[in-house]
Amino acid sequence: MTGMRKRVTAGFLSIVCLLFFSGMISFFELGRLSRDTDEILKANQRNIELAKEMLDAAHEQNVALIHLAVFGDRSYDSLSRTRMERLESTLQIAQREALDKSFLDSLAFVTTELRLLTDNYLAFAPADSLDSLGGKWYNDEYEVLYGRLTSAIKNYMTSTQSSLAPRTEQMKKNAYRAVTPVLISLLVMIATVLMLYYFMSLYCVDPVVRMNKSLGDFLAFRVPFAPKADFKDEVQELREKIEMLISVSRQNKA
Amino acid sequence: MRLDVVLRYVGMVMLFVASFMLLSAGISYVSARDSAFYPLLLSALLTALLGAFPLIFVEKKEQITNKEGFCIVVGSWLVACVVGMFPYLIWGGEFSLVNAWFESVSGFTTTGATILRDVEALPRGMQFWRMSSTWIGGMGVVMFALVILPALGRSKMTLSNVELSSLAKDNYRYRTQIIVQILLVVYVGLTIISTLLLKLAGMNWFDALAHGMSACATSGFSTKNASVAFYNSPAVNTILICIMALAGIHFGLIYGTITGKRNNIFRSEVTRSYLGYLLGGGLLIALSLYWAGLYPTIGSALMHGMFQFVSLVTSSGFATADTNTWTSFAIILLLFGSIVCACAGSTTGGIKVNRMVLAFKMMKARIRQRQHPNAVLRIKLDGVMQESEATHSVTVFIVAYMFLLLIGTVATTAFGIDLLTAFSSSVACLGNVGPGFGAVGSLDNYAGLPVAVRLIDTVLMLLGRLEIFGLIQLFFIKWWR
Question: CB of B361 within 8 A of CB of B379?
Answer without folding.
Answer: yes
